[in-house]
Design brief:
The protein is an alpha/beta fold and about 700 residues long. Among the domains are: about 5-175 and about 355-380 and about 405-420 and about 470-490 and about 505-585, Alpha-Beta Barrel (TIM Barrel), CATH 3.20.20.80; about 590-690, Sandwich (Immunoglobulin-like). The chain has 19 helices and 34 strands. Helix 18 packs parallel to helix 19 (about 570-590).
Length: about 700
């Protein structure tokens, strides 16, 4: 076989990744060759990672070989998440779990965390974020991996093997935790009491009483009596009570069938869904934004879709909408609290947590964490806080479901390092109707949060304002805002303008401010410049769904091709590779340091430059100074770098540009500041400190 780019230096330990290997090239590489390279680099640890003992899902994780344990195992808290550099991977874009292993070969050690987008069976339009069941998504099963390692013969073993291999490579691995499901998921239909229900008749919601789930249970039992149990020979439960007090696995088997029979389970679920819709019963769709509660059917017939079964699927509206109010019609949230006055006014009673629902959600995510040997969770929709008055005076274990999942896993698994990365956007106060979002994040035990730098153009007013605010919040908050470079949420044609320029200085900043976490989505490193929208196959966001090209349900999300189309932006790829290599070299020295801002990002947006170094103990010197020009159109011109001793000089070390002016190769003090002649548009630059 032809050697892979950078293979020799990687195997020898001189580089932490296959330098120069484009992701599309490694995805096409035979898995046998990939594992040969990994084994020559990491030795027996790779064989241990995929050994029968290491993928034995009945075995406690604490008994796994040390080589495949979390790189965070043994840490006493989650402080590491405040400094992690994370990449998000939608497994669909790389094909399967073996594809994730292949892609990981292109990631340097400085990218130390991998977030896997949802890994469960999907529901409507096969959205990864609309979980249809707790069963792992078998579309991620790798036949190539099974052929190479025959005992990796089911999806659970392959997920464990993936995590084990990534651990050997020094990566922490995270799963999504989602506080909702597909609206007609096996969870909702198999355990109606876990969700809120409504009756829809004649285009109106006629009943949404607190006890409607009892009616749903009787309707489901009557359907079961009529259709019979899913598996021939199974005994029909004697009544509603007997059905819904069975263990969940047994009940789901009776209603839907064998977990391994996906087509059969889908057919049963669709048949039950049709029956419930025909009598007007539906789970209440999830909502976001103020006032959070109170919905009605959208009367506009143009906002209703009729499916192939003749069932109408209207949109829903917030009855008294506020800014950011939204209904997620395909999704249903767990019913975590009781309701006031039988839910007459859609009012939640936060003094009545429904503990069995919390326990159910926590237990299931803990079970998935065990299978995947995960090190952290990414909390989906962490910004949805339903309390109008924000964080209460007393915060208990039933304040937030995502906090509860994190705490349950830490305690039940003996894993105090298990962290929580929140999906929130840090908007202005009261945008979501509950005060400051960081108050909520601190109270919900989030360690870091995505933020929203990725939805701004580098250097514009919003980018600079947000960046400066995040730096200030890092000083005072337990939840650290991230320097987000790109995400699956923002990788679709609507957001092309964010990535047409400034990508190099984004990455330069994200990696070289070591005390701030960062997040980037797969494919950023070679993303093409789209001056006009490309076909949907070029965007990772559109692989969250599986809409056919001829779909009239969500045509904007539809794809004609099967495979993700990687970018061909070799210039960007070369720049990203150079930045990664430089960051690895420097972070080996400054990684544990705290950033000291010499010229902080300008929240007034009157300048586009920033300069930073490392805070040190008295008598010690920082090793590097970094400068960035976030203006993508104009040179910085000369400016002063204050705060450094007069006797120090700065020697040029690295630039994201092609070259710099000779006058800027060594910077000295004029008695007041170190003069820097010019930083180019969108350039990041590094200097080594030469202290006397």
């Amino acid at each position: 076989m032809k050697p892979l780019s950078g293979e020799d230096r990687f195997v020898a330990g001189e580089e932490s990744f296959l330098v120069g290997l484009r992701p599309q090239e490694v995805i096409r590489t035979p898995l046998s060759q990939v594992f040969d390279v990994l084994e020559r680099r990491y030795g027996e640890a790779i064989k241990l990672a995929v050994s029968p003992a290491a993928v034995d899902l009945d075995r406690p994780i604490g008994e796994l070989p040390k080589a495949v344990m979390s790189p965070r195992a043994g840490e006493l808290d989650t402080g590491w998440m405040r400094r992690t550099n994370m990449v998000g991977i939608n497994v669909r874009t790389v094909g399967d779990y073996a594809g994730v292993v292949k892609y990981a070969l292109t990631l340097p050690n400085v990218v130390d965390s991998i977030h896997l987008l949802p890994i469960w069976e999907p529901g409507v339009v096969e959205s990864l974020y609309g979980m249809a069941s707790w069963n792992l998504n078998t579309e991620f099963f790798s036949s190539e991996w099974k052929e190479l390692v025959p005992h990796l013969d089911n999806i659970g073993k392959q997920l464990r093997a993936l995590s084990n291999v990534l651990h050997v490579m020094g990566k922490s691995v995270g799963m999504d935790v989602i506080p909702h499901t597909d609206r007609f998921s096996e969870m909702a239909l198999g355990s109606p009491d876990l969700f809120e229900w409504m009756r829809v008749e004649g285009g109106r919601i006629t009943d949404h009483s607190d006890s409607l789930a009892d009616t749903v249970e009787h309707v489901i039992f009557d359907w079961l009596v009529d259709r019979g149990t899913a598996l021939p020979g199974d005994e029909m439960p004697a009544g509603v009570h007997q059905l819904f007090t069975m263990t969940e696995p047994r009940r789901l088997s009776v209603i839907f069938g064998d977990p391994s029979d996906l087509p059969g389970r889908i057919n049963r679920r669709v048949d039950l869904l049709i029956h419930l819709k025909q009598v007007g019963l539906e789970p209440v769709p999830a909502t976001m934004g103020v006032p959070f509660r109170g919905i009605e059917v959208d009367p506009d017939p143009a906002h209703s879709v009729v499916d192939r079964h003749g069932l109408a699927w209207p949109d829903y509206l917030i009855t008294r909408p506020g800014y950011m109010s939204r209904v997620f019609s395909p999704l249903a949230r767990y019913k975590l609290y009781g309701r006031v006055k039988d839910n007459t006014d859609w009012e939640v009673d936060f003094t009545i947590p429904r503990s069995h629902v919390w326990d159910y959600v926590c237990a299931h995510y803990a079970a998935t964490r065990h299978i995947g040997n995960f090190d952290f969770m990414r909390g989906d929709m962490s910004h949805v806080q339903m309390r109008r008055d924000g964080v209460p005076d007393a915060v208990d274990e039933h304040y937030d479901i995502l906090a509860a999942v994190k705490t349950h896993i830490q305690q039940s698994a003996g894993a105090p390092w298990f962290g929580y990365f929140a999906e929130t956007f840090l908007p202005a106060r009261d945008v979501f109707g509950f005060g400051e979002e960081l108050d909520h994040l601190d109270a919900s035990l989030a360690d870091a949060t995505l933020g929203d730098l990725q939805s701004t153009v580098v250097g514009d007013h919003e980018f600079l304002r947000r960046f400066r605010r995040y730096i200030d919040d890092l000083e005072t908050r337990s939840c650290a805002p991230a320097f987000s470079i790109g995400t699956a949420d923002k990788d679709d044609p609507r957001f092309d303008e964010y990535y047409r320029a400034g990508n190099e200085v984004r990455l330069f900043t994200a990696l070289l401010v070591p005390d701030m976490p960062s997040y980037v989505g797969l494919g950023f490193e070679i993303r093409d410049v789209h001056d006009s929208p490309a076909p949907n196959e070029h965007y990772t966001k559109l692989f969250v769904f599986r809409e056919a090209g001829d779909s009239n349900v969500y045509p904007s999300k539809a794809r004609s091709g099967i495979d993700y189309v990687w970018g061909e932006n070799d210039r960007l790829f070369e720049k990203v590779t150079a930045i990664r290599l430089y960051a690895e070299q420097v972070l080996s020295v400054i990684g544990p340091c705290t950033t000291r801002w010499l010229v902080p990002p300008d929240a007034t947006t009157l300048r586009g430059t920033a300069v930073w170094t490392q805070a040190t103990e008295p008598g010690a010197s920082p090793t590097h100074v970094f400068a960035a020009n976030y203006d993508l159109e104009s040179d910085s011109g000369y400016f002063g770098i204050p705060g450094l001793p007069v006797g120090w000089s700065l020697e040029f070390d690295f630039t994201t540009a092609d070259a710099i002016d000779d006058r800027d190769r060594v910077l000295t003090s004029n008695g007041f500041f170190h003069r820097l002649e010019n930083v180019g548009p969108g350039e990041g630059r590094a200097y080594r400190v030469l202290a006397r």
